[in-house]
Amino acid sequence: xxxxxxxxxxxxxxxxxxxxxxxxxxxxxxxxxxxxxxxxxxxxxxxxxxxxxxxxxxxxxxxxxxxxxxxxxxxxxxxxxxxxxxxxxxxxxxxxxxxxxxxxxxxxxxxxxxxxxxxxxxxxxxxxxxxxxxxxxxxxxxxxxxxxxxxxxxxxxxxxxxxxxxxxxxxxxxxxxxxxxxxxxxxxxxxxxxxxxxxxxxxxxxxxxxxxxxxxxxxxxxxxxxxxxxxxxxxxxxxxxxxxxxxxxxxxxxxxxxxxxxxxxxxxxxxxxxxxxxxxxxxxxxxxxxxxxxxxxxxxxxxxxxxxxxxxxxxxxxxxxxxxxxx
Length: 327
Prior knowledge:
The chain is an alpha/beta fold. The protein folds into two domains: about 1-20 and about 60-105, no CATH class; about 110-280, Leucine-rich repeat, LRR (right-handed beta-alpha superhelix). It contains seven helices and eight strands; from the N terminus they run H-H-H-H-E-E-E-E-E-H-E-H-E-E-H. The chain has helices spanning about 1-15, 45-55, 60-70, 85-95, 215-225, 245-255, 265-270, and strands at about 110, 135, 155, 180, 205-210, 230-235, 260, 265. An eight-stranded mixed β-sheet has the order 1-2-3-4-5-6-7-8, with no helix packed on it. Strand 7 and strand 8 form a beta hairpin. Helix 3 packs antiparallel against helix 4. It starts with a helix and ends in a 55-residue tail after the last helix. The relative contact order is 0.07.
């Protein structure tokens, strides 16, 4: 579950272990509850003065933070962590009382759990009441229930999972969501098109539907046209992207788009396709695919066999092959 992966991630950060948290290395600076003791140098004090005031066996805040920032240090940030993870660790040095117990739930704004085998987004996520960004790429999520998502979310990234149905996600979607990433999943139309409207995502600015199985361009565009704030759209990798008039029809149908498939839409290109949205008859339901075979390995080369002499009684061996293409 996402909760289990979250706690594993926190343990990996070591927020309660040296040089973070509370211990013999900073006990004179904090009381038993982790609050700063009176008379101790503040965060803006002179570092040299702090060094002089440190009791024997303790380290100054600057020295502890430097252990976290130095990439050669044994306490450097583990691989795959984010800038926010580093910020949390420095907070655990300077103000450890803010990260004790359930306090950390009020601090986190972003959570990145990538490639951890997460299958379930459980209700434990609701404890993160200030969460704005949730990155869950490259996991094994097939279903996500919106009731388990914090209402404060603005970014939800689910790239490279196994999501095939958006019904549960759209039951109570986060109202302020601005980016929804669903690339490299198992979505297909027309059953999922109805969930891609302003009724569910009124503030959506960026939408990634790349590398799914959407095939009906006209139907999809009719739903996306309700997203008045949409500026960035990714549809590459879907079968509908093979339609010859695909890019021009999308640009003219969604005039507020500024980026389509990671390519900026310039005024000249938009002018070139003006009026195409009023000619749906140009949208063909089939695409032409050219397959070129450059080399086949493991098949005997007929030209390498010597020709049999005239009148020879040696047996003649023939070969035949069948090549199948599956789309």
